[in-house]
């Protein structure tokens, strides 16, 4: 238990250093120590220069965040790759997750005022899957699809994992001859009822690329038969503020903005999950292009209208 506390304490200190420098943009070691001593995390003990340098190296190894020094003038410290913190990568996700965890851990006295959402992400399988990926070992899983009542047991070669909308997914290829010749399939971790790492090795395909597999995809549906297209959306001003701060897709570009609405352009595969996202936005979003997508959304809305016009 003491070791875990020490580990958690060190991570909390790393996060504090990153956040303090990130917010200050540039800060001297003297000013950093001054702020450190004002925080409960310091326990009244200042940071020694050698300790701080060791933390900088560890922060680079753990998060890929480079705390550099100007080496002139006031010799202030700053984050040289600040833009990486906002990128959609493993280390930025890890950093953000630890920041949230750290904030919650230090808020036990108001825990009844912090409401969290239950996430059925199947995280109990993550460690085993990651180990199998590292060792290139076949997984044996029992899986019940969302669309089928019966459960199936089979072996799968784990290629990668992806987090989308608070759910973890496994991309893998079945070892059965028929499916092995086809493209990898996607399995939701919360639909896995049993998972076991076998001793059977597999060769990771050298031509498989996660980026290529999900290229142009909106979410978790990787349908290469659906071409990447230019999608043009008209969004009411109020909802545009939300979409502007939380992009629907990494390709999002705002080409027009006025007090009534904004125009957003995307380059993606308009698959089922993207259509669902458009419908979820309701009357605040209108599809302008492509015309086939606008027509498809219109037909779905008409079928919905028929259902709601029926008397109960």
Q: Characteristics of this structure?
A:
alpha+beta; 5-stranded antiparallel sheet; single chain; SH3 type barrels; Alpha-Beta Plaits; 24% strand; 4-stranded antiparallel sheet; 3 domains; Arc Repressor Mutant, subunit A; 11 strands
How is this structure best described in words?
This protein has helices spanning 2-24, 29-38, 49-63, 90-105, 126-135, 177-180, 210-213, 237-245, 272-280, 291-309, and strands spanning 67-69, 77-79, 137-143, 152-164, 167-174, 185-188, 192-201, 229-236, 253-257, 261-268, 285-289. By secondary structure, the protein is of the alpha+beta class. The strands form 3 sheets. It has a 5-stranded antiparallel beta sheet with strand order 6-5-4-3-7. A 4-stranded antiparallel beta sheet has the order 9-10-8-11. A two-stranded antiparallel sheet has the order 1-2. It comes from Phocaeicola coprocola. This is WYL domain-containing protein. Residues 124-193 form the WYL domain. It holds the Pfam family WYL.
